[in-house]
Design goal:
It contains one helix and no strands. It has one helix at 12-69. It is rod-shaped and about 90 Å long. It starts with 11 loop residues before the first helix and ends with a helix. The mean pLDDT is 83.
Length: 72
């Protein structure tokens, strides 16, 4: 007589691990969606800071050019 298989029997620990795996996958997908939505907004803020720094450097270069013209 063949022994009954235990393939369909789940222990409480395995059921708990499956629930945790599902929760982790949901959390990962929500986190990825959050990053995909807000990463462009964060990077656009750094673009504004780069533009501001570039404008400051250009103004400083113009001032240096005027000072050199007047030999000060």
């Amino acid at each position: 007589m063949p022994r009954p298989g235990l393939e369909d029997v789940n222990s409480p620990q395995e059921a708990s691990m499956e629930r945790i795996a599902i929760l982790v996958s949901i959390f990962a997908s929500v986190f990825a969606a959050f990053v995909a939505c807000f990463l462009p907004l964060i990077l656009s803020g750094s673009k504004a800071a780069q533009d501001k720094a570039r404008a400051r450097r250009l103004a400083e270069a113009r001032m240096n050019a005027r000072l050199l013209r007047f030999n000060i």
